[in-house]
UniProtKB/TrEMBL annotation:
Organism of origin: Papaver somniferum
GO molecular function: phosphatase activity
Pfam families xref list: DSPc
Protein name: Tyrosine specific protein phosphatases domain-containing protein
Matches recorded under CDD domains: DSP_bac (cd14527)
Annotated transmembrane regions: 28-47, 67-84
Domain of life, per lineage: Eukaryota
Matching InterPro entries: Dual-sp_phosphatase_cat-dom, Prot-tyrosine_phosphatase-like, Tyr_Pase_dom, TYR_PHOSPHATASE_DUAL_dom
SMART domains to which the protein is assigned, alphabetical: DSPc (SM00195)
Tyrosine specific protein phosphatases domain segment(s): 154-213
PANTHER family on file: OS01G0859400 PROTEIN, PTHR47216
């Protein structure tokens, strides 16, 4: 179930609780429920694929959520944070996995224990979770994306180019979303292709699945990756014909150095 349907269902339940309490005469107690319901309905609309407006939550490029967002959308933001922490605590899945040398994919790093070693450069694919103090010392790049939705092809390309520069400096890279199952996997697929580890994003998905079996990309993730792949191939063809310049990025590898072309949107 996509986030818009799930949050709409949550909004309906909260609205039912509000009506029930109000009919019993508990007007003051019922007010928080109607407010939480309205917030949830707003998030459900903004996260619908036809609208897809993660900027609604106001997450900044440094990973922080402004105070107005925490106040207005508090019922949603703290619900997803509590739900995520609870699910992570009861899950036996590791917080992250290394999918190739120096490249990790996983869930929200809310503590140092959930952060890969080596002070990795972090690509954050969440719109709803903040950058915590535990990772404030790490290089950081954010592409805010709703849960179960996909980053835009241009956002994937920007994240990949940023990651390539970090790998060129021998920095490990950690790509995360809430649980490391969808949004972050899509970006990691693209990075593995750019690094030359995988021939295409489908092969990259299989590589990641071998190391992190619970990944679960949906049709939106695959569509975005397909569009990214087509644009990247088109960009390389135009570059070979001399239509525009594309910078070459030299990447470190345990056995050899591979040259990868990074296309810009």
């Amino acid at each position: 179930m996509g986030i818009s349907k799930l949050i709409a269902l949550k909004a309906s339940v909260l609205l039912s609780v509000f009506v029930f309490l109000k009919n019993l005469g508990f007007k003051l107690i019922s007010i928080p429920f109607i407010y939480a319901s309205l917030v949830s309905f707003l998030v459900a609309i903004a996260s619908h694929p036809s609208i897809n407006l993660p900027l609604l939550l106001g997450k900044k490029s440094d990973g922080s959520l402004p105070i107005w967002s925490r106040i207005i959308f508090g019922p949603f933001l703290y619900f997803v944070r509590l739900f995520g922490l609870t699910r992570r605590l009861v899950s036996k899945e590791p917080p992250y996995n290394e999918v190739c040398e120096g490249v990790y994919v996983g869930g929200w790093p809310y503590s140092l224990k959930t952060l890969p070693p080596g002070e990795p450069a972090i690509i954050d694919c969440t719109a709803e979770l903040p950058r915590t103090l535990a990772v404030s010392h790490c290089s950081y790049f954010c592409i805010p994306t709703w849960d179960t939705r996909a980053p835009q092809p241009s956002e994937i390309e920007s994240a990949v180019n940023w990651a390539l520069r970090k790998r060129n400096l021998n920095k490990p890279v950690f790509i995360h979303c809430a649980f490391g199952h969808g949004r972050s996997v899509a970006v990691t697929c693209a990075l593995l292709v750019a690094l030359g580890v995988a021939e295409d994003w489908k092969s990259a998905e299989n590589i990641i699945r071998e190391r992190r079996p619970c990944i679960n990309m949906n049709s939106l993730h695959r569509k975005s990756l397909e569009e990214w792949s087509m644009h990247r191939l088109s960009s390389k063809t135009r570059n070979e014909e001399g239509s525009f310049n594309v910078s070459d990025v030299l990447l470190p590898n345990s056995s050899q150095q591979k040259r990868v072309r990074g296309a810009k949107y």
